[in-house]
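Complex 255.
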Amino acid sequence: MNEIEVRELVRAKYAQSALEMAKGASCCDDSCCDANGCGDGYAADELASLGLDAAVSLGCGNPMLLADLRPGEVVLDLGSGAGLDVLLSARRVAPGGHAYGVDMTDEMLAVARANQAKSGLGNATFLKGAIESVPLPDASVDVVISNCVINLAADKGAVLREAFRVLRPDGRFAVADMIALDELAPEAKQRLDLWAGCVAGTISLDAYTKELQAAGFDAIDIEVTREVRLEDVEGLIASAYIRARRPSRVEIAAK
Ligand SMILES: C[S@@+](CC[C@H](N)C(=O)[O-])C[C@H]1O[C@@H](n2cnc3c(N)ncnc32)[C@H](O)[C@@H]1O
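Predicted structure with S-adenosylmethionine bound:
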């Protein structure tokens, strides 16, 4: 499978998930969520205050717990899905801040925009685009978040370089993602359902660290939050919180 085939496979799977969500199905019915924890990690009252519930999450953690967002900041969510993390961010960066979500799947963007209407929040924008080529200018964002998406990309280096490009110097990368704790069998890595289900595209903690370093990030920290053993696949994967930082101009000049 090449990168374009992977992206199309993933897009088709999440278009289907979005159509099911729009009909009221819970993400817990979705195989991706089975592995990921099904939206646990969000406070019910915070979700209720947006008019949403955790069923709109297809994520594997809660990036709000590591992003430390402040009023006035600009946030970008890579692969924003139904929009939960964008809307939670928008609330935290008000007044004066803005939250952007980028997603390639039209059906997901429609669900996200409907959820934004329910929330009544005006300082959020959902953009159509690939996370390998983000439709935002250089150095325009204070914090990049993402929730269970980067594992789905065939070219993780391209995604991390884009995250670095759009971040301002000293900007933060605060991401929940799935990683591989064991090397998965080659047959499993080839299975399309396992790629779209956030399993086959996982890389090790070491490989993730190297990709972040190669993109230019420092202060890299990866914390495993939940180990996941799958029924029909040998080897462990895990959800993880991944933090990093784009160095400041002073630090770059000093090098
Ligand atoms: C597992 S869901 C996670 C959604 C959301 N972050 C959440 O926590 O609920 C993956 C989302 O990322 C989007 N996505 C996957 N690969 C992408 C890519 N290469 N470019 C843009 N969006 C992508 C999919 O359309 C889908 O909405």
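Residues 102 and 127 are 5 Å apart (CA to CA).
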